[in-house]
Amino acid sequence: MRPNERQPLVAIHGLSKYYVRGDQVIPVLLDLDLDVFEGEYVALMGPSGSGKSTLLNLIAGIDKPSAGEIRVGGVDIASLSDSDLALWRSMHVGFIFQFYNLMPVLTAFGNVELPLQLTGLSRAERRERVETALELVGLTDRATHLPNELSGGQQQRVAIARALITDPTLIVADEPTGDLDRVTAQEILGLLARLNDELGKTIIMVTHDPKAAEKARRLIHLEKGVLVG
Amino acid sequence: MFIPLLVLRNALRHKLRTALTVLGIVVAIAAFGLLRTLVDAWYAGANASSSARLVTRSAVSLVFPLPLSYAQKIRQVSGITNVGWANWFGGVYINERNFFPQFAISGASYLDLYPEFVLSDAERKAFLADRTGAIAGRKLADKFGWKVGDQVPLRGTIYPGTWTFNLRGIYDGAEPATDTSTFFFHYDYLNETVKQRYGRPGDNTGVFVESIANPEDAAGISQAIDATFKNSLAETLTETEKAFQLGFVAMSEAILGAIQAVSYVVIVIIMAVMANTMAMTARERYTEYATLKALGFGNSFVALLIFLESVGIAITGGLLGIALTFPLAQVFVDTIGSLLSGFRVSQQTMAMQLAAAVVIGVAAAAVPAWRAARVRIVDGLRAIG
Ligand SMILES: Nc1ncnc2c1ncn2[C@@H]1O[C@H](COP(=O)(O)OP(=O)(O)OP(=O)(O)O)[C@@H](O)[C@H]1O
Ligand SMILES: [Mg+2]
Predict the structure, then answer these.
(1) Domain spans of chain A?
(2) Contact call for B295 and A106, based on CB within 8 A
(3) pLDDT band at residue B342 using 50, 70 and 90 as cut-offs
(4) In what order do the strands lie in the sheet with A10-21?
(5) DSSP strand E in A37-182: where?
(6) CA of B244 to the centre of ligand 1 (A)
(7) What pLDDT was estimated at residue B48?
């Protein structure tokens, strides 16, 4: 390893995850190594049940590995306490979910603002940031709408704005277009590509859709808990 | 601003469910308050009584009378400043539903024992001068619209016949807790009529009431009185008026205990109902809680949302319930009339109602909040699919 070699943003070594049920051990991820560099746009593919979501959740710090190490930006996240991990997530990870997972009682504005409630930003600063993010996803005119007054594509764009708002180190997306029609899916994928291109965001996306994977810069295949190709 | 807003909007998500929960708490808290007030009123009578007065009655039972001649001997016991007597009349005014206590009393000596019955000098004189005169408490007079000068007919049950009294005065209570729902007339009138009309021996009374110089001597004086009549045909039992009143209350102790128990059962029931509602509500939001946690909000934040929502709903219901207790208590007073003096919703009752509401809210949220705080993010997120 040359000393001036670029450090990976996400460095995974010997990662294993298994579930124990009774005396039965269900292996999900097996001794997995993976590096993701800053500014990459990675698509994670593989058959259902291969462990894609599990891997993504581990990288995002919402699940704990059974063995191995996950370093994100130099931090060994598996060793953090629950509350430290929560704080870490609030600063470093933006989440995009298949079913958007917006708070139904908050407006588009309120949903995008949500992660900023954990920061010390003033009301005015928060407002400015939220307006910028909503503009970026093209929903300025929908700021006061509740999620159930928005289409699926619009809800996902709100979710993307929410994932961006804290300027996280990493954006994780689990089948972000899984619940959308083809045209809307293309819009969302275009938006993610722009985030990567124009803002230099590091994105890891799980997808079943080869079209979606095409947009990504790098493809990873997971099969039965092991990376292939 | 953010947390209250989130809690409020969450609470209003299922308006009907929240409204029904609030309604349940309103009813429970109002019922709780009403039952507590009822128990309070029951004891209030005893508390309003003086510990500077003794009551002497038959050692066997209150229903056995004592010879009037005892008054002389009681007066000679040292420490006693005044002796009067009273006899239960038990008459019916128009019909049985108009119940109120009536006593035949020893005129001036009895009135002197009860300075808390405030009567104008003119009325007092008029009463004492009229053999068939009577006085009534303000509450009682108001209830039946009696005025001084009215004639009040009572149908005797223990002493048959119709007895007509001239209302010579209406007394007020010196304090709010003073009972003003009793009717008094002259013992002499009763006694003489009984002797003449029914040829009964007469010269008997239910109780003697004594005032004492020093309340601390009550026990010794009581013993001295009872010792005087030891081994006589009618032995006596003397105790402070308060103990005497509490003896009455004790008769209904079982009922009071039951009422008190019911008041708590009502709270426990609504607590269980609300806990179930909150559990259902929280379960529906597991995905949201998991999402909040993924975004970096702590377990305690999620628990706080549930607690605040639950306590907020409970306090809303509690305050409405407290407000409702007053009109309910009024309806109760109007219905039951003069039976219970001092039927008022006390500040202590209101404080207990509010405390009960908070306890309901906290208890209902405890399990759902604990579960929601503990649920793993990945499991919570999975709940959606
Ligand atoms: N809590 C759990 N207990 C037991 N097994 C689990 C648990 N969570 C996940 N698994 C198993 O782990 C495996 C991988 O699940 P994962 O959700 O990561 O798959 P996936 O690749 O994302 O599939 P899909 O494409 O259907 O979303 C599955 O076999 C699943 O049954
Ligand atoms: Mg998955």
Answers:
(1) 39-65+79-228
(2) no
(3) low
(4) A24-36, A10-21, A67-72, A75-76
(5) 41-45, 67-72, 75-76, 93-96, 170-174
(6) 77
(7) 62
**Mean of pLDDT values over B182-207:** 90
Find the residues whose C-beta lies inside 6 A of ligand 1: A 19, 26, 28, 46, 48-54
Residue of B289, B295, B304 for testing the chain A interface, max A β-carbons within 10 Å: B295
- DSSP 8-class letter at B106: -
Residue of B nearest to A63 (CA): B378
Q: Please state, in angstroms and rounded to a whole number, the distance separating the CA atoms of residues B334 and B323.
A: 18
Helix (H) or strand (E) holding B17: helix B15-48
Domain extents for chain B?
Answer: 2-45+253-381, 60-234
- Does ipTM come in above 0.90? yes
Quote the ligand 1 centre to A49 CA distance (angstroms).
5
Superfamily per CATH, domain A39-65+79-228? P-loop containing nucleotide triphosphate hydrolases (3.40.50.300)
Is it the case that residue B18 has pLDDT exceeding 60?
Answer: yes
Averaged in consecutive runs of 10 residues, what is the pLDDT profile of chain A (229 residues)? Answer: 67 94 91 94 94 95 94 93 94 95 96 95 95 95 96 96 95 93 92 92 93 86 85
Sign of the torsion angle spanned by Cα atoms B322, B323, B324, B329: positive
| Residue corresponding to tokens 């940031």 | A129
C-alpha neighbours within 13 Å on the C-beta side of residue A91 = 11
Q: Is the pLDDT of residue B252 over 90?
A: no
Mention every residue, 6+ apart, whose C-beta is less than 8 A from residue A68: A12, A13, A14, A15, A16, A31, A32, A78
Q: Which residues of A touch B (CB under 8 A)?
A: 57, 60, 62-63, 82-83, 86-87, 89-91, 95, 97-99, 101, 103-106, 114-115, 117-118, 162
Using one digit for the tens of pLDDT, what is the confidence trace for B269-306?
Answer: 999 999 999 999 999 999 999 999 999 999 999 999 99
A·B CB contacts under 8 A: 59
Mean pLDDT, residues B185-209 taken together: 89
Tens-place pLDDT, residues A185-211 = 999 999 999 999 999 999 999 998 888
Residue B385 has pLDDT above 50, yes or no: no
Q: Which residues pair with B136 in a beta bridge?
A: B170, B183
Buried b (16+ CB within 10 A) or exposed e, A78-117: bebeeeebbebbbebbbbbbbbbbbbebbbbbbbbbbbbb
